[in-house]
Amino acid sequence: MTKNIIIVGAGPGGLATALRLKGQGYNVEIFESSNRVGGRMRGFQDGDYAFDTGPTILQLPNLYDDLFASAGLKREDYITFTRLEPYTKLRFWDDSTLELTTDFDKLKHQLAAFRQDLPAALDRWYAEETKKYDAGYEPYLSQPARSILGYMRLDELGTGLKFKPWETLYQHFWNAFQDERLVYALSYPAKYLGMHPTLSASVFSLIPYIEMAFGVWHPQGGFRALAQAIAQGFQDLGGKIHLNTPVKQVWLENRQVQGVELENGERIKADTVIVNADFAEAVQTLIPPAAQGKYTDNFFAKKQFSCSTFMLYLGIDKRYDNLPHHQLYLSEHIRKREKPFVNDSALDEIDPPFYVCNPTPVDASNAPEGHSTLYVLVPIPHTGHGVDWEKKAKSYRDLIINRLPLLGFEGVEQHIVSETCYTAENWQNDYSVYLGAVFNLSHNWLQLGPFRPPVRSEYIDKLYWVGGAVHPGSGLMTILESAKNTARFVEEDLVKR
């Protein structure tokens, strides 16, 4: 008999899991409260302008090839990827700049201008990271989390020591380059893990290595089109997606999944339920209190969550074709070691670092001819830190608009046709993100691997979780790995029944 699987939420994790399970022959239905798929990646349209709302960086395109292939499909039949070179440009506190690229000759030429020994330092670092990637990605990032004792195997001790877990990410890059510009240029992705480089584990040096080794890509049509592509592949195989259909709760009997109960009171039977939603929010709203186990308000109050983000989505009646797709301004404040700079516990209203995505030069589908869109992101405190955005939003918006020339975006104010602003409250209220912490639980040592919420529910039979809060963590790359492991667990458990 064919098993029936329900997935709650059509974010990238839910969509990827659905496609894999549909490819394995299961009946799979997705129930999504929004009017379109993608979760935080769903994007939006404002007049003639289309915007991505979540991720803007695509790593390891082979993961998407593998995802579609798992269901007998070809990724290129659904979505096209464009490689970005250079993939990120950074401007530092001292007004120097660096363009990150997979072209090592160009990269080394820039580093030599910083200091003559840095090109050789880059070669040494890259060779060492290649060994770490080859030894560590598949067993630690791609595979399901193990028990604590499972990470203490003697035959893997040498591999574990290569990662120097006693080092912070800052120490790792300082030891390699002894130039703070390179330290923060390569360690800044830690911010999207909810960590400052001086607190983040050195294992995350694999992220800048992956970008340097395999490139950074852009899906044509934007990340909203990527979500639609995965959904289309799923539907082409007969999968069903119910939009505008919120789930009230997971239907349980004696801590065993029976299906889901919709907001309208209808109950839908299923052999397995997978929840693709913000974990901290969903476990407290979709699961009856008696079945939540340790995941209570008190549990989450003791955990460390990531920053939120202040977002400006701007439709502009001009083009910035001479400016890169991804740019970062790393201010002097990124180097500070004290609170609130290391934990984003207060709003930086003086010199905040910020990021701008300028997608139109490589993908003109988001704006009319001669126009463009800009995606501006500033790390800010999550809602637990009490910023009054009703009072602060306008002045903070003006601060950021006035700082855009730091990255070459001159005269933006007078060319704005469309403008949308998100604060931490939007992420919390409109996207159901706990505390508006868009990068979920931080990735400190006590919230990694076996200490992170597991894919397979600890308390409820036939319930699974997929997304950035469970192992291996936040980010599209890791969410795709989470989806692969979720589909694997479901297959294993359904075969046993």
Automatic annotation (TrEMBL):
Keywords from the UniProt entry:
Carotenoid biosynthesis, Oxidoreductase
Q: Which residues form the Amine oxidase domain?
A: 13-488
Q: In which pathway does it act?
A: Carotenoid biosynthesis
Transmembrane portions of the chain: none
Molecular function terms from GO: oxidoreductase activity
Example GO BP? carotenoid biosynthetic process
Q: Which domain of life is it from?
A: Bacteria
Q: Which NCBIfam families match?
A: crtI_fam
Q: Which family does it belong to?
A: Belongs to the carotenoid/retinoid oxidoreductase family.
Q: What protein does this entry describe? A: Zeta-carotene desaturase
Species of the source = Calothrix parasitica NIES-267
